[in-house]
Design a protein that fits this description.
Helices cover 14% and strands 43% of the residues. The chain contains four helices and twelve strands. With 182 residues, it is mostly beta strands.
């Protein structure tokens, strides 16, 4: 059983009401100890703390696929996000091996018959969850193509350079789900 933290509805509705003036809300987390990333809060369902041994490995899968996890009675594929985007994998980082930190990414799927959308979900194992950031989409900059890791490029929406000089990687949740679904 995991300890989980759902994204509060007040935060989601706050983002919808003030999106034009205040910016969009993003979950800030560490991919590696030296790489901080953002994903849009509206694409996230839950933050999980999963005890070691609860992710069941599946044979013959890509290295980034850690296995599956029983999440609310459904099977949730768990992916080492750092490994997927070409950074140091979770196993190679000096982290607490007794628990996994993960976020549940949910993006709208293809439109099915009867006008319903099938959501696609994926568990992303990360280094650490930090905070919620509010960023104006217009401040997200395209990265110079020569300076980025080619494995990271397909998952990158851009970079956000904060006023204090900190640079945050802004990821594209749809690209992550599409890549893992292949």
């Amino acid at each position: 059983m995991s300890n989980s933290l759902s994204v509060p509805e007040t935060l989601v509705s706050l983002n919808e009401d003030n999106s034009s003036s205040a910016g969009e809300q993003f979950l800030r987390f560490q991919l590696t100890p030296d790489t901080t990333a953002l994903l849009p809060l509206l694409q996230l369902t839950e933050v999980l703390t999963i005890p070691n041994g609860q992710i069941v490995p599946i044979a013959h899968m890509p290295l980034c696929v850690m296995g599956v996890y029983n999440w609310r009675g459904d099977i949730l594929w768990m992916v080492d996000l750092a490994q997927l985007v070409g950074l140091t994998s979770w196993y190679q980082q000096n982290l607490n091996p007794s628990v996994y930190r993960a976020i549940v990414l949910s993006t709208p799927g293809q439109k099915t018959t009867s006008a319903h959308h099938q959501n696609q979900i994926l568990g992303l194992v990360i280094n650490r969850v930090e905070d919620i950031e509010v960023c104006n989409q217009q401040l997200i900059q395209s990265p110079p193509s020569s300076s980025i890791n080619p494995r990271l490029a397909p998952f990158l929406q851009g970079y956000w350079s904060k006023a204090n000089g900190e640079i945050l990687v802004v990821l594209n949740g749809d690209a992550i789900i599409t890549a893992v679904s292949k």
